[in-house]
């Protein structure tokens, strides 16, 4: 197995491993260490089977069942992101997955089942590097604040309530997962590094500030944390797999491939309460 860093801030390519075979304890430990260091790992053309993807993700922790996205027909722990079945054209939002939960995801395993002939890249940004580059006075000010994370920002009626069944499921998800408050700056539970914990996809407001102050500061933080120097861009090939640390990253899936078909499977590994 070989691990090659891709950018100064985030990302590494891993070769010499077959993810259809659940890694043994020693290999898994190496991958976990690499994930802590690089925050997102990429594996070319694995063509991982749904059951193998589930088992690999389960080796990292307990798996999450998403309240809105459809599950794989045979492996319910996998989300199916199909551009011909879901409205993804308005989904170009930087986000950290399921931060509307009390204990958001630790990480995710994403596989490319079918990719378009062009476009459809995914970008991952390091929230720790973005935090590190803030001035000390601003870091100190942010450390005492909390932010609200709302499922409705990324799952509006206009896109996810097109049928009676879908509307009922979305309303249930909103009842089950009301807006959740998390610290604006999160300490990673393993590395101890601090990082921003706000994204355009789910963060609706900073709780301790006025609406005008909150909007102004969030606009700055969203723009600051998504600068190119903080992100890696992955151009998918069929069969690729990405694994990321959801506690210290955000990501964006580009919708720039028109009507071409893009199908991705995602397994989500549960995490802990942000502190």
Automatic annotation (TrEMBL):
Keyword field: Dioxygenase, Iron, Metal-binding, Oxidoreductase
Iron found in the keyword field: yes
Record InterPro entries: AtsK-like, TauD-like_sf, TauD/TfdA-like
Annotated ranges, domain TauD/TfdA-like: 3-268
A GO biological process held by the record: sulfur compound metabolic process
Domain of life, source organism: Bacteria
One GO cellular component term: cytoplasm
Pfam family, one: TauD
Molecular function as annotated in GO: metal ion binding; taurine dioxygenase activity
Keyword presence, Iron: yes
Family: Belongs to the TfdA dioxygenase family.
PANTHER family to which the protein is assigned, alphabetical: ALPHA-KETOGLUTARATE-DEPENDENT SULFONATE DIOXYGENASE
Protein name: Alpha-ketoglutarate-dependent taurine dioxygenase
Lineage: Bacteria, Pseudomonadati, Pseudomonadota, Gammaproteobacteria, Enterobacterales
């Amino acid at each position: 197995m070989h691990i090659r860093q891709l950018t100064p801030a985030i990302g590494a390519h891993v070769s010499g491993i077959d993810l259809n075979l659940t890694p043994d304890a020693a290999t898994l430990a190496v991958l976990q260490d690499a994930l802590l260091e690089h925050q997102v790992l990429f594996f070319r053309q694995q063509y991982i089977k749904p059951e193998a993807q589930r088992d690999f993700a389960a080796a990292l922790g307990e798996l999450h069942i998403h309240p809105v996205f459809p599950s794989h027909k045979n492996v319910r722990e996998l989300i199916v992101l199909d551009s011909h079945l879901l409205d993804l054209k308005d989904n170009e939002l930087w986000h950290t997955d399921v931060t509307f939960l009390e204990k958001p995801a630790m990480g995710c395993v994403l596989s490319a089942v079918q990719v378009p002939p062009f476009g459809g890249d995914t970008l991952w940004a390091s929230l720790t590097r973005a935090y590190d580059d803030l001035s000390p006075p601003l870091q100190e000010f942010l450390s005492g604040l909390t932010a609200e994370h709302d499922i409705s920002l990324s799952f509006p009626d206009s896109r996810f309530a097109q049928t009676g069944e879908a509307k009922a499921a979305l309303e249930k998800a909103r009842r089950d997962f009301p807006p959740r408050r998390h610290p604006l700056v999160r300490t990673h539970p393993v590395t101890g590094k601090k990082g921003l914990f706000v994204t355009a996809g789910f963060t609706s407001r900073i709780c301790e500030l006025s609406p005008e102050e909150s909007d102004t500061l969030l606009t700055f933080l969203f723009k600051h944390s998504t600068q190119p120097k903080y992100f890696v861009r992955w151009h998918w090939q069929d069969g690729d797999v990405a694994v990321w640390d959801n506690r210290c990253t955000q990501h964006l899936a580009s919708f720039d491939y028109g009507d071409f078909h893009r199908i991705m499977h995602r397994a989500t590994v549960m995490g802990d309460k942000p502190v």
